[in-house]
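Why should sequence recovery work at all? Because a backbone constrains its sequence more than one might expect. Tight turns favour small or flexible residues, buried strands favour hydrophobic ones, and helices have their own preferences. The token representation captures these environments compactly. In the example below, the structure is given first.
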């Protein structure tokens, strides 16, 4: 800084003392450089994970090459590794999940944004969002002990009896199968598709809706012809993001898919997925270098696929939702036009082609198996009725009945959207009911005060698992909170537009990397070098999962603070760093704490990363350098055991864990909602 005074017609310069090396100056410099450093660490995490997995699977990459992707035999004793059955199972279960979840999710989003009054839409949206907070292992527990028996008794036999001529639905049905995996995955990706689709739909200008209604269109016609086409590209991004979540899901799938490495057409048969393989076989690979390299290569494949899927989905959503500078409008407009064209032409082609293919195959196999009687099977009759209904509707259009039919169909379709939204709420209600009903039976004081007992001996508790959960989550918080906080501060206030946007985008993509991949990375980076499992390694893995949530929440909360706060502090002589530390961050404190709670709630329910790092132990750990247990690990171990008392403890542990996470999530989401509403 310089101070100028005029002396004898000349300008004399007096330099103010530099604050660079004062105590306050050093604090400011340390704060800014720390924020930059932590932001760069977040940016480099994706690269580090990819490079580490790539280097550590070099043995199998060089030995097997592409045959790893095309081979169908996975024979560990003979060192034969073919991943095709696992890739097939991952793709089939994920596609099946989307077939179920997309109509439910998009229908629920349409109801919440276009039909439901705000007083009703807000609680329904909140309930659907709560599904995302339920740990994967609890979905798996309910899926294995409730959903699979229900499907086996009521759904699978009907499918096999009526559609069994089609190889896709051929029986006999297994208890754990691809259908159960698809249903569980659909429930888990439902909040992602619903919440993001709702936000995309809300970006459609209100004037377009009002103009359509003013021209005489019904509510449903406005939704179908105006709102959906405008939001189609963003909805496609939400669906792709849901696909990324489904591809990497581990614990719920491993408990319901059957874990049989074979390629079969029927969804009523057992299958295997890549995440399930990683969860099931990592124990055996600790001292087998080739086996370990093969699993790390599977993790690398899963990492690359999910990063590409999530990156593309995030890019689509950013282009469709995020405001740009005026100079970027033309470029963004061209990209958006291309995306909308792709969505307009590609989505109907994919959906129509897929539907036509399924119907064609079903018609062919039914006629081949039953002759002329095959034309009167359920699918054929439903198809004929749909065609007949469309012909009748086309005939009455333009007649006196046409307007009445339009009003009637609008009411019917709005009712269908309401059923889809309430169906999503029913899933959460049923899940809570089963966990509370079954978990209450196993609740007792011993559960919290005693250590586990050997298999077959009744009694005991999960004291070590409860304390172990607090240990690894505490370690994760110590590592992840500073990274996320200062990274968010940098993106919000210090970062250049390009670097800040890159860090933000990287955090979003990192948030979509499957936890099982992060667990394998932590295993390779933190466990193998020291040759033992530990709470430190588990905490480090969970910290990586925490960082994106904290960073993005911190950034959003800091941006909600009015600029006048920062400008006022600067006008009073504070430096930018001082103003941010002393004024902006305290003003956003409640929202930032909310983000921390959401991150803690998420990692408290993680299982897969702890399988590879903390490992689990039935004893109390004396230090974080030892293997420790956690609630999620105990739930998984006990749920698949043949002992009734262990199963009861699994339900009780699930209830304890779900109560903790739902309370944290509910408080956090309530605070976030109020914070945004107030702003």
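From this structural description, the recovered sequence reads:
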């Amino acid at each position: 800084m310089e101070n100028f005074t005029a002396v004898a017609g000349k300008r004399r310069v007096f330099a103010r003392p530099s604050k660079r090396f004062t105590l306050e100056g050093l604090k400011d410099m340390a704060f800014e450089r720390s924020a930059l450093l932590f932001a760069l660490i977040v940016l480099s995490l994706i690269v580090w994970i990819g490079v580490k997995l790539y280097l550590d699977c070099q043995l199998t990459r060089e030995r097997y090459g592409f045959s790893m992707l095309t081979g169908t035999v996975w024979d560990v004793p003979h060192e034969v590794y073919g991943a095709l059955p696992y890739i097939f199972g991952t793709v089939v279960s994920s596609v099946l999940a989307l077939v179920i979840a997309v109509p439910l999710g998009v229908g629920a989003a349409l109801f919440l944004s276009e039909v439901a009054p705000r007083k009703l839409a807000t609680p329904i949206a909140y309930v659907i969002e709560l599904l995302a907070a339920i740990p994967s292992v609890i979905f798996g527990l309910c899926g294995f002990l409730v959903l699979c028996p229900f499907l086996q008794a009521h759904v699978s036999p009907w499918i096999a009896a009526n559609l069994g001529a089609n190889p896709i639905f051929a029986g006999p049905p297994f208890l754990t199968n691809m259908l159960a995996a698809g249903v569980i995955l659909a429930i888990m990706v439902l909040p992602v598709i619903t919440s993001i689709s709702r936000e995309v739909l809300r970006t459609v200008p209100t004037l377009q809706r009002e103009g359509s209604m003013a021209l005489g269109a019904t509510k449903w016609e406005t939704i179908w012809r105006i709102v959906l086409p405008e939001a189609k590209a963003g909805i496609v991004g939400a669906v792709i993001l849901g696909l990324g979540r489904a591809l990497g899901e581990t614990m719920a799938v491993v408990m319901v898919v059957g874990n049989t490495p074979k390629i079969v057409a029927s969804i009523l048969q057992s299958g295997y997925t890549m995440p399930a393989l990683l969860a099931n076989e990592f124990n055996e690979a600790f001292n087998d270098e080739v086996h370990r390299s093969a699993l790390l290569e599977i993790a690398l494949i899963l990492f690359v696929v999910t990063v590409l899927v999530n990156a593309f989905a995030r890019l689509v959503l950013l282009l469709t939702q995020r405001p740009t500078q005026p100079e970027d409008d033309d470029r963004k407009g061209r990209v958006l036009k291309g995306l909308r064209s792709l969505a307009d032409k590609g989505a109907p082609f994919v959906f129509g082609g897929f539907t036509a293919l399924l119907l064609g195959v079903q018609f062919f196999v039914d006629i081949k198996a039953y002759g002329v009687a095959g034309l009167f099977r359920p699918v054929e009759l439903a198809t004929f009725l749909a065609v007949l209904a469309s012909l009748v509707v086309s005939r009455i259009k333009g007649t006196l009945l046409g307007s009445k039919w339009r009003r009637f169909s609008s009411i019917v379709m709005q009712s269908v959207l309401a059923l889809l939204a309430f169906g999503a709420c029913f899933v959460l209600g049923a899940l809570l009911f089963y966990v509370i009903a079954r978990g209450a039976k196993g609740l007792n004081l011993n559960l919290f005060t005693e250590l586990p007992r050997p298999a077959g001996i009744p009694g005991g508790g999960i004291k070590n698992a409860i304390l172990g959960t607090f240990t690894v989550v505490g370690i994760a918080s110590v590592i992840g909170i500073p990274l996320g906080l200062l990274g968010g501060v940098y993106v919000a206030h210090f970062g250049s537009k390009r670097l800040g946007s890159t860090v933000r985008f990287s955090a979003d993509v990192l948030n979509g990397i499957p936890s099982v991949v992060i667990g394998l990375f932590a295993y390779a980076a933190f466990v193998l070098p020291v040759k033992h499992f530990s709470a430190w390694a588990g905490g480090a893995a969970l910290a990586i999962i925490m960082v994106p949530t904290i960073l993005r929440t911190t950034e959003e909360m800091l941006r909600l603070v009015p600029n006048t706060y920062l400008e006022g502090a600067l006008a009073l002589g504070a430096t930018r760093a001082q103003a941010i530390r002393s004024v902006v961050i305290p003003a956003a404190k409640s929202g930032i704490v909310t983000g921390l709670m959401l991150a803690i709630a998420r990692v408290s329910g993680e299982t897969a990363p702890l399988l590879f790092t903390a490992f689990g132990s039935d004893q109390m750990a004396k230090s974080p350098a030892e293997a420790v247990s956690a609630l999620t690990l105990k739930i998984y171990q006990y749920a698949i055991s043949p002992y009734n008392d262990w199963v009861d403890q699994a339900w009780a542990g699930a209830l304890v864990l779900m109560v903790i996470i739902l309370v944290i999530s509910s408080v956090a989401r309530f605070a976030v909602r109020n914070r945004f509403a107030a702003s």
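A few observations help interpret the result. The CA atoms of residues 138 and 654 lie 6 Å apart.
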